[in-house]
Amino acid sequence: MRLHRLRITAFGPFGASQEVDFDDLSSAGLFLLHGPTGAGKTSVLDAVCYALYGSVPGARQGGGQGTSLRSDHAAPGTRTEVALDLTVAGRRLELTRQPPWERPKKRGTGTTTDKAQSWLREYDATAGTWKDLSRSHQEIGEEVSQLLGMSKEQFCQVVLLPQGDFARFLRADAEARGKLLGRLFDTRRFAAAEQRLAERRRAAESEVRAADAELLADAHRMQQAAGNIVELPATDAAPGDPGLADSVLTWAAVARSTTRERLTALHLALTAADAACTEAQRDLAGVQEVQRLQRRFDEARERAARLDERAEEHRRVQERMAWGRKAEAVAPALALREAAETEHRRATSEDTRARAALPASYDGAGAAGLATAARKAAEELGGLESARRAELRLTELAGQRHGLDREERADDELLQDAASWLDGWDSARAALQEAVESAQDAATRAEHLAGQLEPARQKLESARRRDRLTGEAADARTRTLRAREDAAAAHEHWLGLKEQRLNGIAAELAAQLVPGESCAVCGSTDHPDPMRKTAEHVGRDAEESALAAYRRADEARTAQESRLAAVRESLAAATAAAGEASALELAHAADELRARHAEARGLASGLHAAREALGQAEGEHVRRLAAQQEAARRAVARATLRESVDREQGVLERELAQARGAEASVGARAAQLERLAAQLTAAADAARAADDCAKRLKDADARLADAAFRAGFDTPEAAAAALLDDAEHRELQHRLDARQSEEAAVRAVLAEDDTTAAARQAPADVAAAWNAVEAADRRVREAASARDDAARRCTEIDRLSARCATAVRRLAPLRAAYDRVARMAGLTAGTSADNERKMRLESYVLAARLEQVAAAATARLARMSSGRYTLVHSDGRSGRGRSGLGLHVVDAWTGRERDTATLSGGETFFASLALALGLADVVTDEAGGVRLDTLFIDEGFGSLDDQTLDEVLDVLDSLRERDRSVGIVSHVADLRRRVHAQLEIVKGRSGSVVRQRI
User: What is the distance between the alpha carbons of residues 423 and 418, in angstroms, rounded to a whole number?
Assistant: First the structure.
């Protein structure tokens, strides 16, 4: 990195714009930046830092975003600005930054704040111009950090070497040195590695403890499942203890063996209790059987006593059954007599009912008399059949006569209607004929008008097209004129640009010249004074664009002229077709013609209907004439038929008057005779049936008396009383059968040997046997419960043991991983016994960096101290602080190694200077080898004697061998004689100014 130029405006103590030319200062290799205290020497370095990073070192940044950087000496309208021109990584860049600015408002009173601004430009050597890269604070900061490879803190320590900080670094303890080196070398990744390992150790420890806690919980569950069977207490190890898994597995093995022994013993006890319970149940069954037989014997004796008590009742049932069996022989005669009596009552009732319907003259008549009277009524009824047919014929004749009257009335009406219609036939026929002729005339007229309608419509369309094309022609003329004007203007513009280009063609050709190559015009390779393009220069692209615009305008003009010609041609054709009449007149004429045509078509549409009406009227005329003739013929026929009907009707009426007698009609007389004959016949039949039933009843009484006597009964009534119906017979027989079965069952029970033997024994004690069984069963349940509880304990302990074994197997890799991570975390944190120096990983890396810095600084320190002092790195611990960051100085005069804090003031200065230069070399290599061609050393030279100062200046001057320039910031007067290139800062009331002297 090499600084070229710095421009400062209204920054720090500088009220006006000041410019520093580092190229001139760097030509001497070593230059002095001096001035009185407070003049602004450090502000120049702050300006460089602010241009690069947008902030100044340390507390000088102040609050906000740099608002305290503005000079109090600046004019209100002057904005604070810092611009730095530098080369870094082979690129020439210009950085310009403006901090936030509180300026007066342009309108009104008060102030307003403008935001901070940043610009980054790069010089293009080929074009010889600056090219803008970015105006984003973030993008510029990232670009600078990437190019320099250093943060602001590293830059301030490496490029702006603050000797006071390095003097403190020499005297500081390990912790303070670690903080400074950590900022310079960015060892955060190693600290992050320490933290990551510590976090992984804690996470692994948490997983192991969680797994141990789960394993210990299972061990406690096994202890609860085992109860007081296992005398050995469970493990007392805590989660995380190494021996927890082994102690849990050992206790689980003891618990499993103990619970299995307990289960075997309880299983044997259950088997013995089952056997005792089975024996007690057999004893109970024997006692219950004895009790059952004793109860059976007692019940049989009680049933025998009850049978003896009901012996008389059994005898009466037997007697009733015996009389009932005798009465069964009389039952058929009783049934026959009952049926005969029922039939006799029915026949007598029917005879009484039939006689009640007859006239009183037949009272007392027997069956024969009633039959004779019925035959006579039938004979008289047969004689009325011819009179009935005559009556029916008379009814038909009356209906025929009524029909003739109805036909006569209808024919009279038809004749009157036909006569009325035929009277107006001639006038109606003439009117219909006239309507047909009028419709024919209208059809002819409509056809003629239709031929005129289409030409009129076409003429109207031509007139309308003529009017429309007239407007389009005017519009086309306007567009054509405008297109011609545009084409002329475009042509003139193109010609003007072409002329301008030809006038400046020399500049255009000069722009294509390449140094060392031949000119396309003269062929020379020297181009001493090529013409430059002016602001009014017209290029080839502009000329071609104008030419293209002109061609487009000319094509548009041609298109408009073609369209105008087409419109005019169409207008002429439409005018010739439409004539001189206006479109309105032609529209009225066409409307009138359409109205006349519609009227004629409407009249002509009635031609078919008029012809059909005429045909229908002529047909009606023929039909009415035929109907009139037919009605006259029917009138003659009706007169003849009416005379015949009247003669037959008189004969029949005389015959019927004789046959009806006193009745209103022959039918009424016949109905009367039919009813009388039926009643007499029914009465005769009922009388004969009653006589027959009386005879059968008398025979049944005789048979019944004989059957009762033979069966042993005194009277038929006694036999009827002894007769049993089916229900009584079944009930009595069931009682007898039940008695017989009960007697047999009682005898069988009393004859059983085991029952009688049991009856001779003492009463059975079932309660005592039950108590013995219940006690045995209770012992079985208790033994089974104990056995089941032991089995559950064994199952639970086996399950938990398997679970613990699985957990131990799963825990093994976790514990191995934890041990590995814990060992690594202890090593990196410096707490492990394997880390003898108790050095953390970050300290180890910083110690390596410090060792490199000490080696680089020793080369310069030996020269500054005439070979007396050498810086060495020490990894020993100082008290309770961190180890690995010790720094000692070896005194070649005494041969002893001592701490750097024992150096004198002058010795401390050149030791810190050597350390700063060595640190700059190491950090430069750390930053990717970015070359630092400009360095600044701030203060400390006043503590050196003349000889030491010469040696220090020789060392600094030797940096020129690496093409570096070193700026010394000091107010020591002796340096002004020794260093010729100087940048003086002069302070005054209006602000500080810069004076540069080479």
Answer: 9
What does DSSP say about strands 934-938 and 160-162: parallel, antiparallel, or unpaired? Answer: parallel
Q: For residue 917, what are its two tokens?
A: 């230069």
Q: How far apart are CA 649 and CA 655, in angstroms?
A: 10
Contacts for 38 with CB less than 8 Å, ≥ 6 apart:
13, 987
Helix (H) or strand (E) holding 984: strand 981-986
pLDDT higher than 70, residue 184: no
User: If phi over 0 gives left and psi between -120 and 50 gives alpha, with beta otherwise, what is residue 240?
Assistant: left
Residue 444 has what DSSP assignment?
Answer: H
Residue 762 burial by Cβ neighbours in a 10 Å radius (0-12, 13-18, 19+): exposed
Q: Phi/psi at 819 (nearest 5 deg)? A: -60, -40
Structure tokens at 139: 């993008």
CA dist 155 → 91, 526, 705, 857 (Å): 19, 47, 162, 18
**Do residues 105 and 85 lie in contact, with contact meaning Cβ atoms separated by under 8 Å?**
no
Candidates 845, 858, 840; CA nearest to 919 is 858
Q: Strand pairing of 129-134 and 117-124?
A: antiparallel
Measured between alpha carbons, how far is 883 from 888 in angstroms, rounded to an integer?
13
Run of H or E including 15: none
Q: Of 17-31, 367-381, 599-613, which one has max mean pLDDT?
A: 17-31
With contact defined as beta carbons under 8 Å apart, do 533 and 504 qualify? yes
Q: For 154, how many CA atoms within 13 A lie in the half-sphere containing its CB?
A: 23
371-374 long-range contacts, CB within 8 A, separation 24+: 371/680, 371/681, 371/684, 373/680, 374/677, 374/680, 374/681, 374/684
CB 63 within 8 A of CB 77: no
CA atoms of 231 and 47, how far apart (whole Å): 85
Angle 508-512-518 (CA atoms, 0-180°, nearest 5)?
Answer: 125
* 31: three-class secondary structure by DSSP: strand
480-502, pLDDT tens digit by residue?
A: 888 888 888 888 888 888 877 77
DSSP state string for 329-384: TTHHHHHHHHHHHHHHHHHHHHHHHHHHTS-GGGTT--HHHHHHHHHHHHHHHHHT
Extended beta strands in 549-629, E state: none
Which residues, in sequence order, are bridge partners of residue 8? 18, 82
**Per-residue confidence band for 5, with pLDDT thresholds at 50, 70 and 90:** very high
CA distance 50 to 83: 9
The model's pLDDT over 928-980, given as tens digits with 9 standing for 90+, comes to: 545 667 777 765 565 566 666 666 666 666 655 556 677 888 777 777 777 88
> What's the CA gap between 786 and 784, in Å, rounded?
5
Cβ atoms within 10 Å of 827's Cβ, excluding its own:
19
Q: Give pLDDT tens digits for 26-36.
A: 887 778 888 88
Distance CA(309)–CA(140), nearest Å, equals 137
CA 192, CA 342: separation in Å to the nearest integer?
Answer: 133
How many helices (H) and strands (E) in the chain? 26, 17
The backbone torsions φ and ψ at residue 353, rounded to the nearest 5 degrees and listed phi first, read -65, -40
Q: Which long-range contacts (CB under 8 A, 24 or more apart) does 690-697 make?
A: 690/344, 690/347, 690/348, 690/350, 690/351, 691/367, 692/347, 693/340, 693/343, 693/344, 693/346, 693/347, 693/348, 694/344, 696/340, 696/343, 696/344, 697/337, 697/340, 697/341, 697/343, 697/344
Q: Which amino acid, residue 219?
A: A
Write the pLDDT tens digit of every residue in 596-630. 778 877 777 777 787 787 788 788 788 878 877 78
**And the tokens for 728?**
């009584």
**Cα distances (angstroms) measured from residue 153 to each of 54, 160, 561, 932:** 13, 10, 79, 15
Mean pLDDT across 846-854: 76
Q: Which two tokens stand for residue 469?
A: 């094309």
Give the CA count within 13 Å in the CB-facing half-sphere of 463.
19
Q: What angle do CA 24, 26, 29 make, to 5 degrees?
A: 135
